[in-house]
Amino acid sequence: MLAAAQDGDEEAFTQLWLDGNAALLRYLRVIAPEAAEDIAADTWVQVIRGLPRFRGDEAAWRAWLFTTARRRTIDKARRRSRRPEQPIQDVPASELPAAGDAADIALEHLSTRTAIALLADLPPQQAEVILLRVVAGLDTEAVAKLVGRSPGAVRVAAHRGLRRLAQILTEAGVTL
Amino acid sequence: MLNFSRRARRDAPGIQDASLAALLAGAVPPPDAPAPLQHVADVLAALQAAPSGDEAAGKGAALAQFRQRVGVSSQPIRSRRRRPTLLSSLLSAKAAAAAAVAVLGLGGVATAAFAGALPSAAQRLAHDTIGAPSPHATSSAHPGRADASHAGAQARHSGSPVGPSASGAAAFGLCTAYAHASRHGSAAQKAVAFRNLEKAAGGAANVASFCASVPHPGASTKPHEGGRASHPTAAPAPHPTGRPSPHRSGPPSPHPTGAPSHG
Q: Per the CB < 8 Å rule, is A5 touching B70?
């Protein structure tokens, strides 16, 4: 599909774009919620420009897509004179499941939106590595390279994030 | 702000590092896994649901840029670079089909498949992958058709990547690929190609006339008889390797066949 898109096949590109854009938006809605759509659009401009010359398999393609998005996120934050390490701003409270709102987290119908809101409740670095592993589909080494940390640190952050997620869900009184 | 990580570890004693690593790699926890692990798995699965409508905004702009920068291929089929071996295309088509059916087979499409109400090629695909009744086992295709096509339309709009959709210059490639798959491919390959043809042709009954009317790029032979002329490069340009969006680069995961149902 990637090769076909590189060759100019619109159908293949459309599918590549649909999958990639959904993944990008889910990632960006957690790490840069106020500018997710803008950053996604900017990412595609850059990626489409470089598409004919790109050399790599689909895993490399995903790494490139998310590296581009992450760089644009950091650039945008810098342009606003904000430190990139600043914690992500809070997702609006209406989107977050409050403790006791078990009905909102009926897990058999868990929406992507709610899952994103749950991740936004985690410390930013933990949320980011989880998203890059799960939504971007990158392995630990690729995530480590992308965020500039060791694979061990990435693993620790991801596991901490997942345990914290488990606790949030338990505290919210989720039952199945 | 309290540090929850140690407390979390105490509160969720059943969650081992190995289990978390497995979840991140795409594994589905066994039914007897502790509840907190199951819940986390559900959240991760929801993060990987098929693209929704609101995630497709901006497609037009992206396509316009694509046309400008990359351009439309005038030859949908290029032999040397992209012809897959039969084995690799069988494996990828099966994997793609299984993954797509599993992603889609949450809700309407799976229900329709089990009620035997899908169009027969899709029913065969469902039979091969999720064990739905085979097409000939059901005779009530017509009453269910409205539900099936609705479910099918929903499934398509969910954007599952099961091969290219047919339009324009790619249609010839798909008609040829379908003919090729009918003779040489697996049921899954044939169903993948058929489904997209069916969509472009506006119904299974129209596929034959659709292929007859698609112009062969640069030639005058009829595409659906081109399969017989044994196009050596009969593989369609965008060959169906697409897997659901957040797909894994690691070892094959059991996720596609066992995913719990989510919206």
A: yes
Q: Which of A13, A16, A19, A116 to mutate to test the interface with B (most CBs of B within 10 A)?
A: A19
The interface predicted TM-score of the complex, written ipTM, equals: 0.85
Q: Could you tell me the residue range of the domain that residue B219 belongs to?
A: 87-226
Nearest CA in chain A to B174: A11
Residue matched to tokens 């065969």: B124
From B8, B55, B168, residue closest to A164, measured CB to CB = B8
Cα A106 to Cα A176: distance, rounded to the nearest angstrom: 8
- The verdict on residue B40 lying in a domain is no
**Subunit contact A112:B57, Cβ cutoff 8 A:** no
pLDDT in tens, chain B (263 residues): 655 555 544 445 568 999 999 999 999 999 999 989 999 999 999 999 999 888 999 999 999 999 998 876 544 555 555 555 665 555 555 555 555 555 444 445 545 555 555 556 556 665 665 666 666 654 444 444 444 444 444 444 444 444 444 455 566 677 777 777 777 777 777 777 777 777 777 777 777 777 776 655 554 444 444 444 444 444 444 444 444 444 444 444 444 444 444 44
B9 and A163 within 8 Å at the Cβ level: the answer is yes
The answer to the question of residue B8 being in a domain is no
- Please give the tally of structural domains in chain B: 1
Contacts of A131 in chain B (CB under 8 A): 47
Contact B237 A12 (CB under 8 A): yes
The alpha-carbon gap from A80 to the nearest alpha carbon of chain B, in Å, equals 25
Q: Which domains, ranges and CATH numbers included, belong to chain A?
A: 2-79 (1.10.1740), 94-171 (1.10.10.10)
Phi then psi for B43, rounded to 5 degrees?
Answer: -65, -45
Is there a contact between A43 and A22 (Cβ–Cβ < 8 Å)? no
pTM, two decimals, is 0.53
Amino acid (one-letter) located at B220:
S
CB A119 within 8 A of CB A108: no
Long-range CB pairs of B178-182 (<8 Å, 24+ gap) are: B178/B207, B178/B211, B179/B211, B179/B223, B179/B224, B179/B225, B179/B226, B179/B227, B179/B228, B179/B234, B180/B227, B180/B231, B180/B234, B180/B235, B182/B227
